[in-house]
Amino acid sequence: xxxxxxxxxxxxxxxxxxxxxxxxxxxxxxxxxxxxxxxxxxxxxxxxxxxxxxxxxxxxxxxxxxxxxxxxxxxxxxxxxxxxxxxxxxxxxxxxxxxxxxxxxxxxxxxxxxxxxxxxxxxxxxxxxxxxxxxxxxxxxxxxxxxxxxxxxxxxxxxxxxxxxxxxxxxxxxxxxxxxxxxxxxxxxxxxxxxxxxxxxxxxxxxxxxxxxxxxxxxxxxxxxxxxxxxxxxxxxxxxxxxxxxxxxxxxxxxxxxxxxxxxxxxxxxxxxxxxxxxxxxxxxxxxxxxxxxxxxxxxxxxxxxxxxxxxxxxxxxxxxxxxxxxxxxxxxxxxxxxxxxxxxxxxxxxxxxxxxxxxxxxxxxxxxxxxxxxxxxxxxxxxxxxxxxxxxxxxxxxxxxxxxxxxxxxxxxxxxxxxxxxxxxxxxxxxxxxxxxxxxxxx
Length: 444
Known about the structure:
Blueprint: E1 8-9, E2 15-17, E3 20-21, H1 22-29, E4 33-37, H2 38-55, E5 59-64, H3 71-79, E6 83-86, H4 89-97, E7 105-107, H5 114-123, E8 127-130, H6 133-145, E9 150-157, E10 179-180, H7 185-194, E11 199-205, H8 215-236, E12 242-244, H9 262-279, E13 286-289, H10 293-296, E14 300-312, E15 316-321, H11 330-334, E16 340-342, E17 352-357, E18 366-373, E19 381-385, E20 405-410, E21 413-418, H12 423-426, H13 434-437
Helix pairs in contact: 2-9, 5-6, 8-9
């Protein structure tokens, strides 16, 4: 297992994160448990902010909260001087409830409802990333009713293949997101926005995908977007003030992954934009980026307690844990791969090949196939690494399992930032019709 951030093995042979013994964390807070390395979270935020300060000061780093959204995380992002990307009314509500400055919020999404847009207009969020023609019309009308102007970026599809899983590619022409440059729809969107009285067109946005290791994909995207900036200027006379190049930088999950340094990404992006602006006599736009996974992914782990162990001689040994696809659906969704270890046996060598099974009533609820672990028995604490992104945020109550707690670990102290759901929470919104209470059947 790859140790990173503040991870270390203590004298007891246990895994520590943020100076906290993870075996003790499992005992204190229960399992499954998400543990976030707060120092690493802040280190990653600062790597982005400081790299842009060095290479291109007219920039803003905004955290893509869809990967991990809690009030504490919003507070941390604000403290690190970053903006925030939200994609739903729920994420917006979380940000506002945390006290995050509304003028630093960017509202994304391919199907924002009228209610969500009205909520954002009421809060006076900083930017709307408009996805399609329908949204242009809707937002313009809602802003007119409120006698205000909404500042927008138009999301465009640059047609870049980021060489990642097809479910997390977003920059291709055939995509649910954005208006394509290649077929002229993106230019039509820009022209339409410039003519709308209650919208202020600030620039363009793209996001080419997630878990990207090849920085040339970003170089190609930046060059394509700057060429489109030139086309908008040529056709309309308007020079885009803002250029949002999205996020998607890859992280380490398993051996073979080769994440690239944040500083190298920033240097390449900014160099490409500068060169294109000079070559085409364009003003330098403000650059915006939206990192998410590369900030929180490796900073998070999940702790589980081993339950049953089933050995099928000559076939496979299954080790079942007290979580699974309810707290990490990514293996089922994308065939995502992870590394793991026994947090209470970090110095014990792996002696057997096992597969980690979840507890859900689904044959596909497998967290890891064929991993080398020390002899594993019920009660051991399994730690799965790099679970900070898209695990808590995609967690569910399937089989009426309770969603886990989340703690931030730092300086030898672990603080609860999300309570574990109770059984009472599971039925909080359930209702029983009065006729059922009176034992009256529904008559067909």
